[in-house]
Protein 1
Amino acid sequence: MSTQINTVTGAIPSEDLGKTLMHEHFFFGFPGYAGDSLGYRTREELVSLGVEAAGRAKTQGVKTIVDATPNECGRDPEILREISERSGVQIICSTGYYYEGEGATAYFKFRAALGPADAEIEELMMTELTEGIGDSGIKAGVIKLASGKDVITDYEKMFFLAGAKAQRATGVPIITHTQEGTMGPEQAALLVEAGANPAQVMIGHMDGNTDVAYHMATLAHGVNVAFDRFGVQVIVGAPMDEARKATLLGLLGMGYGDRIMLSHDTINVWLGRPLAMPDAVAELLKNWHITHLFDDIVPFLKGAGVGEELLDSIFTENPRRLFDPSPAPTTTGTVGS
Ligand SMILES: [Zn+2]
């Protein structure tokens, strides 16, 4: 029997995942946005903008989108459910907190000061994965973990250790945030040492680093890596797409095509007031949208000799295997013993 995956509209068998974007955000706010009453958005606005984005992805054959928004950054499974129902795109939501530098850290830090919070975090993740988020009845389908630049802080470690335990207990995959191309190998080592199944770990934002040796050191732990910020250029220490493309081609040429995922980390709606972006920044981010991979990067990869079969595997088979690492059922009728 195939593994069941929690989407915001219910469980699906892993073979129904289809073409998948592994790291996007329908809406996201840095903690603090909720206090800016000038940035209030209606639920209907979030839903209709989400349906529009999901629809554009759907025209490119995307069947599933993983929404990587951490709990405290505006995650709202019921709005995601409505977006999924109205667009027909399957959506998987996350459980987990953002990294110390940009997350809401006071809550669990205060609790940790009074006694160990690790068990509480694990209980939160387990409940959201197996029973549901609040009273929504919607279960999270991935565990989201995050660390900062050049360090995994003690605060962040609490979440990594809890996440590894929840991963092992549930078989649900872990997706991560790395900051400015750092700590990929360290995240992988920490998670594997804490008992996570490396085949079910996707180290994220690895395209923030164009050094092939950094990728190989991460892959050496048996995990998967994500080039999931295509279109994000220069801001948050990101390289240009041109550099990412070269690194990606290098890894594909070395035979790592079965352990790489592609996505954009789009933020379709910034919670709070809309961003005022200088023209130069807007120009750098002009391709940061949900079909950029299909409009621009896939044609480039094809032109560079990457075959249809490998591209299909990257968007469909690799995500399926992250959720369900058991071997695909054989259809050739081999005689068992
Ligand atoms: Zn993200």
Protein 2
Amino acid sequence: MQRQSSFKYEGQKLASWYFTVAVILFGVQLVLGLVSAIQFIYPSFLYDILDFSIARMIHINALVVWMVYAMIGAVYYLLPDETGIEVVGIGIAKLLFWILTLAVTVVVLVYIFIQIGPGKESTIWLITEGREYIEAPRWADIGIVVVVLGFLVNTFLTTMKGRRTGIMTVILSDMIALAGLYLAGMFFTDNISMDQYWWWWVIHLWVEATWEVMVGALAAYGLIKVVGANREIVEMWLWIEVAMLFGSGILGLGHHYFWIGTPEYWWEIGALFSSLEPLPLVGMFIHVLYDWGKEKGIKTGTGEDTSSNNTPALMWLVSNGFGNFLGAGIWGFFHTLPQVNIYTHGTQFTAAHGHLAFFGAYATILIAMFYIAVQGKYGIKKTKSHICFQNGDIPHNFRGFRNDCGTYYCRI
Ligand code: HEM
Ligand code: HEM
Ligand SMILES: [Fe+2]
């Protein structure tokens, strides 16, 4: 039987579309990651059909694109919830979704069908710009800018019209910075040092500044949703993180300027400020666990139900606190001093950090948002990480346990 969607707002329905494409691209990312890994072991695997350079490129571009989709989805999901009103201009917002999705499909097909050829001006416009992680050709870049501008206008107008919360204020200002930075990776220069200089503005200032702030806002929203955390407490932490991450994250950019031909003062700036970067990550980690424990404690005293209403989402939220701290904070700190980086630069050490950080800091929290959306879509009161059967419909071959509320479950 087809279950009816329980979304109260069209904005949340649109969010579920964004989430669906995000999940599909996540799948594409994993498959191409496996292909590139196999090619490390058997270099002739799919040779001339899907070369390592292309498989790896789609692997990491799909990564960035699915995360951007999931972030836009997350904003559309919480926007009506936070502001208390429908997304302004929802019709245009839906149209923009289809334009973006069509453009992404065309870009990926072009990557797959035109794998080799001369590097001309037309290549930059039509095939790829060749900038790692954000390789979309210029026509698509311009399209992305238009779609994102539309998204920003929708979000801005909705926030101004509806209830204004701290979470929405942070997200809105963060999205403006995040979108603005994309422009730094769009213009062409034939000097590779200059190209890298600007390219890091997008990559580093996304993952270590603007995306991290986004994570803070999503964690705040997620904690309120799944464990009923106190808004004042999570929002206070959010503001602290915004201040700290923007401070250390922006100058921490210097840790990518050690060996690309930029002036030597970047050694000191990069070393000092990027070493401070793990601090807000520690704060975020403690924040997730402490807030939850505290709220639970307060409620235990009152006899209220202290369990989470969405165990999978909560587990992913907690793994976000831990994964962000480990993958970005600890692993990042390992190689952020020039004295260490001179040996680890561009080695598997970097790739391992890239995997752990992207997964720990972003995949986890976005997966938590998927679970929150699934819960919202089907109006589930309590989403659990184990399969529950009501007494009446237990399959007769079922081997499980009975818990104290009379429900059967097979595993926790
Ligand atoms: C969630 C946050 C983060 C993500 C997603 C992330 C991801 C990445 C990725 C993918 C690379 C490789 C880039 C390339 O292709 O060249 C990289 C490089 C690097 N990251 Fe991070 N990172 C994060 C946070 C941090 C933090 C907090 C630090 C330091 C405390 C750090 C230090 C570094 C350094 C030093 C490099 C350069 C490695 C080299 O020279 O080969 N990262 N990061
Ligand atoms: C099935 C699982 C996966 C496999 C087998 C896999 C495999 C690979 C391989 C072989 C590369 C190329 C490494 C190189 O050029 O030396 C790579 C790069 C990368 N992958 Fe994955 N991957 C997987 C999942 C993921 C996930 C889940 C994420 C993030 C959420 C991710 C993020 C990255 C990043 C950021 C890079 C570039 C790292 C760098 O060059 O520094 N991968 N992956
Ligand atoms: Fe960085």
Protein 3
Amino acid sequence: MAKTISFARGAPSLDIVDVDGLRAAADKAFESDPGGMTAYGTAIGYPPLREWIAERHQVAPEQVVVTNGSMQADAFLFDALVESGDSVIVERPTYDRTLLSLRNRGADVRMVELDPDGIDVSALERVLAAGARPKLAHIIPNFQNPAGYTLSAEKRERLLELARRHEFTIFEDDPYVALRFEGSPLPTMLSMDSGGTVVYASSFSKTVCPGIRVGYLVGPAELIAKIVKIATQTYISPSMVSQAIVNQFCLSGALERSIEFVRNALRERADTLCAALERELPEARFVKPLGGYFLWVDLPRGADVGALFEAAAERGVQFVKGSDFVLDGGDSSLRLAYSGVTPEEIEKGVKRLAEAYHQLAGVTDEDAA
Ligand SMILES: Cc1ncc(COP(=O)(O)O)c(C=O)c1O
């Protein structure tokens, strides 16, 4: 069988990872701070990187904790804030690992519909008016995983206002922010907030590489101090080696170069994917992403994405079913990640996907053309 083409993993292909830049950053780190990076360190993270992040977000270093990937940051935040039975708002659809992590903690997870300009704030308002008292709302504002949608500036304002009025924390989960293809960046809710309503997470997984496992949280100093205690008990300290390498990568300018390179590659992949879908699978409905890794596809009502998953796998193409990102439904939707596939693979993969869909739908290739 032909080589499998995977639209399943939200991870970069090796050709968009700056391996030489990482090697140079590692050399520089070992040369300049061998003691600091080979010691245990403390749970706040590698201090110079913590300071770099604090400066980027215009906050005090005490408001930052640097972790082994942002997934670990999320887990610490949930450990600190979410108890079994607590109500938590998430977007529908949302990142499957967050959903699982919250459900494993016994949270009462409430999904609010996601529109192409972000969470349906009016629907959230109705949920709140009906008596919901969430502790937290988990929001992925830029190029959302799995939908690829971006929260508008107006909705950012309205969400903050709702959070203040109803006293819940906004967890702004923002690993894709740097990967914008077009238009101007929107302000983070963290930067728009004046009173400790927002806890912000981001990561170097999408701008440096995921294997480095460096992510972080920014929030009110007291909450960060509480999380640092949890982190100490969990792992003493995160990987100082990884964080010292990322620190040198940032200081040398390699980060900005890598972001530019990754952005251009992803833009080309997203363009190729959208054009191929329009040509090969005109039944697919989608909103072209303005950045990031993902494209969400809705197929006509009644389409059986479970069966499509099997039929596509037989043809050597993989994706993630929409149902993995919701509590119920999502049966005629799917997520395509274009981060790990070249434009040539995208062309081939979409052809195979369309063949599988048309075969299941009983449509011949001539009908579909
Ligand atoms: C929305 C979101 N949050 C968090 C993560 C976890 O990222 P990290 O590699 O930093 O743990 C991901 C990874 O795909 C993600 O999409």
